[in-house]
Amino acid sequence: MKPVQISEPAALELTEAVRCYEDRRPGLGAKLFEAVSQAFDVIEHFPEGGARRRAPARQLPVRGFPFLVVYRIRPDDVYVVAVAHTRRRPGYWLHRP
């Protein structure tokens, strides 16, 4: 099991997405946050489980929401590069370290 480290850009994306969903309907932002947290747990326990769509990153869909957790497996941890909406700017995160 490798710990999950969340990049600052990914944390900001998650915060903004939670805020937007909460504005749409109270409680929906909390559900999104819980779904992303569950995805982080899956990644922590099964880092090889995400699909390799754009090397070297892997992607895991967030259950119930149009988001992907994009991450890279490093020697000592799993690094979350982005919490990306599936219908907006595909691959925008490719330049991130």
Task: Outline the secondary-structure elements.
Elements: E1 4-6, H1 8-24, H2 28-45, E2 51-54, E3 57-61, E4 67-73, E5 78-85
Parallel strand pairs: 1-5
Antiparallel strand pairs: 2-3, 3-4, 4-5
Helix pairs in contact: 1-2
Q: If you had to describe this structure to a student in words, what would you say it looks like?
A:
The chain is α+β, with helices and mostly antiparallel strands and 97 residues long. The protein has a single domain (4-95), classed as 2-Layer Sandwich (YaeB-like fold). Helices cover 36% and strands 28% of the residues. It has two helices and five strands. The chain has helices spanning 8-24, 28-45; strands at residues 4-6, 51-54, 57-61, 67-73, 78-85. Helix 1 runs antiparallel to helix 2. The mean pLDDT is 93.
Q: What is the overall pLDDT average?
A: 93
CATH topology: YaeB-like fold
CATH-wise, what's the superfamily? RelE-like
Looking across the biggest beta sheet, what order are the strands in?
1-5-4-3-2
Distance between the amino and carboxyl termini: 22 Å
Concise structural overview:
The protein starts with a strand and ends in a 12-residue tail after the last strand. Helix 1 packs antiparallel against helix 2 (28-45).
Using brief descriptors, characterize the structure shown.
5-stranded mixed beta sheet; 2 helices; alpha+beta; single chain; YaeB-like fold; 28% strand; 97 residues
